Amino acid sequence: MTKKISGGVLSPVVTPFDAELRPDRTRWLAHCRWLLSQDCGLAIFGTNSEANSLSLAERRDLLETAAQELDPGRLMPGTGACALPDAVELTRAAVDSGCAGVLMLPPFYYKGVPDDGLFAFYSEIIQRIGDERLRIYLYHIPPVSQVPISLDLIERLLAEYPGTIAGVKDSSGDWANTAAMIERFDDFDVFAGSEEFLLPTLRAGGAGCISATANINPAAIHDVFVNWEAPDADARQEAITAFRRGIAKFPMIPALKAVIGLRTDDPDWGRVRPPLMRLDEAALTALAQVIDQADFQMPGRREAA
Amino acid sequence: MTKKISGGVLSPVVTPFDAELRPDRTRWLAHCRWLLSQDCGLAIFGTNSEANSLSLAERRDLLETAAQELDPGRLMPGTGACALPDAVELTRAAVDSGCAGVLMLPPFYYKGVPDDGLFAFYSEIIQRIGDERLRIYLYHIPPVSQVPISLDLIERLLAEYPGTIAGVKDSSGDWANTAAMIERFDDFDVFAGSEEFLLPTLRAGGAGCISATANINPAAIHDVFVNWEAPDADARQEAITAFRRGIAKFPMIPALKAVIGLRTDDPDWGRVRPPLMRLDEAALTALAQVIDQADFQMPGRREAA
């Protein structure tokens, strides 16, 4: 990987689908480019990317496309998987493509697994990749994965693989946990999983945030990142928090895609893969009202073109 | 698929690994053959098979091996997946191989998804396969998948796809739910997810059981299936329940593999993929005592050869 992610704002890039529910490279690249133009890094293959709804071949194809068309130093693909060979294959492809790092879910099918087993999973991947360019950001998202990454596990991984274990995305929603991660570990970049915690994260010494709503509100979030020491930082934080809470009244992934569809006059952007469902007409109307009342920079046809 | 599974006892076949943690076809086929010799059907790629720890390519390879070497009419592979294309590909391979049916997990990454989304997932698979030989057994295992299959969802799927939706495996551990599934639906085979519920399931009109411990105690479980109306059926049930509870004191998958290793003098059978962990020496010793005290037919070198 070319360089370590140096903190900032990243978006788990939503994945558009064509009429046959295949990933739509053209719409996807346009959205990626718009995000980059807003100083937003690309955490492709995140939870909000429906990454686990994509086959390994589909993820490999999109990764190859991104690495060819975009700056790989701005890419942090999600490469965790339930199956060790899948995680190894996608991680190796990311390293070989020069990605800045990878965001790695734990294997998430079995619940209540011991930390020893999770340590073995990450160890096996690191040893099989065997490449000092590898930078792993652990992905702690217990509300979805139901498999937490404990502080003790992080400590053990950092002791065994310093330099390779580069940081964490904390999507627990539990600020005390985020604060503990920042406090306890050195040379370890802690990203909040929501911009709601961006300012507290930066003030505590964290690295930034990787957040769903950065798909549609990246500029304002980046402003908080840049101006976190400014006198009006709290007011800026309040504004992005209020925006996020407006969106979070809807199912997040369908809502993000619907907003992009609304602002690019391209309602087909709203397609999702099952088990997710598109917003229905009533929800779309309500969402449009939320968006109309918000003051934010949106992906438009001009920017995305 | 050649024929509908007609009820009985099936085992989610545990998957042995070689020293590089690759699926070991030779050990696997030997275990499959021994299970068949004990009148036990082969629910390959179940939870206890570490199926979600295998890549799609590994599952396809094992399926092809099984279909060539064994009677496909005794195979019920697990083909559910988080990603629609994976579920479609493996299900199509199962249908084309003549498997008796498929056991299908819901997509299990996202939690709290609407029944509409799960209906859409199964619908999309059925329509893409487009083959009247397809027989789907729904896999309800909320303690692990965390994505339940509701009675209302089953009703809707049965109404839309009669003949294709063939049954369910209920691994909820909630007898009231199993009883409701049997009571509410016609032409729908309900398999208990544990032999602990085998006799109640059969008495209520269910089809049988698909159970982890059938990997190591298939004959006694099959005896209950065959003799469920016999005067001593309750005593037989008590014996298999007691055996299961002895094994369930240990982590189930490592314990099953360890037992096979003990009885075939092949300790390497005990290998698991992370995030699971092999039993340690203390657990192995305790497990060996449980097994020595039990009266049951085990996979031995002679039977498996």
From TrEMBL, chains A, B:
Catalytic site: Y139, K169
Pfam family, one: DHDPS
UniProt xrefs under SUPFAM superfamilies: Aldolase
SMART domains with a match to the protein in the record: DHDPS
InterPro entries tied to this protein: Aldolase_TIM, DapA-like
UniProtKB keywords: Lyase
Lyase found in the keyword field: yes
Residues annotated to bind pyruvate: I210
GO molecular function: 4-hydroxy-tetrahydrodipicolinate synthase activity
UniProt KW Lyase keyword: yes
Gene3D superfamilies: Aldolase class I (3.20.20.70)
Chain coiled-coil ranges: none
Domain of life: Bacteria
Record-stated family: Belongs to the DapA family.
Protein name per UniProt: Dihydrodipicolinate synthase family protein
